[in-house]
Model the fold of this input.
Amino acid sequence: MTRDPKWSDVTPKSLWLSRRSLMASAGAGLLASTLPATAKIAAAKSPLSTDAAPNTYEEITTYNNYYEFGTDKSDPAAYAKGLTTDPWSVEIGGLVDRPGAYGLDDILKGVSLEERIYRFRCVEAWSMVIPWIGFPLASLLDKVGVQSGAKYVAFQTVMRPEEMPGQRSRLLDWPYREGLRLDEAMHPLTILATGLYGEELPKQNGAPIRLVVPWKYGFKSIKSIVKITLTDSEPYATWKNMAAREYGFYANVNPEVDHPRWSQASERRIGAGLFAGRVPTEKFNGYGDQVAGLYAGMDLSKNY
Ligand code: MTE
Done:
């Protein structure tokens, strides 16, 4: 896969310079600042972005949940290097008009990538603000043609125990799987991310392509996707299947509905300085104006 042009070619210089100093301070000099050639990149921030200050590259790439590489937050940064992400293809099937194995370049063809700074909150009550590079999942689903009987979208992570040490244990029911209702999947806030901070997506963050659903708890945002299936019934979801009382299918961020083992009323912002400490959690992670309508008439304490 060709990885051109440089982010510096498409980003206003002032932004690029501030990014460079940020990344230099994170000691990230080894990173290749390139993105796929096939993608037209809009340098502007998405209108759906949050105004909150982003976490540093260092924070975003060293404090991760990716159990295929271990359960410590530092394991993915240490062990994900061994994952082969090029070539990569995603098998898209089920209730679609044009099923098939789509290479990453096909997927990105004609798609404009935008910078989207989203708050991302994990279920264990910590959050980060991450400048993702991505595109709406809806544009891919439109490309493959969703059939009228489809009601849900199922996602699956790559199964590769030889490269993913966690998959050699029975910690989870591998491969990691997740799902969304079709209207959630088609919402413009739901993106497939292929980068962050203007760089290709680091492996510990789910390279080469992962889901980001910013109004939901982090476990919905499945990494390193190899399979997307349109279905007419609710798909299998790994954490819901592990512990249904703790992890529901919807998993909308909601300070009013506690996890059985801890409060969801506040969260700890990862990082130092001004944003340190606990802050009250906002319903739908602050995206209520955009997404609350999806759940009109639903009891969110039952559909957690
Ligand atoms: N995807 C896979 N395949 N395996 C995982 O363990 N962890 C999830 C989600 N996606 C996970 C995954 C959880 S619990 C969270 S909070 C987010 O990824 C973390 O994303 P980040 O490491 O980029 O912050």
Q: What stands out?
A: The chain has one domain: 7-246. The longest strand covers residues 112-122. Residues 13-25 form the longest helix (13 residues). The chain is about 20% helix and 25% strand.
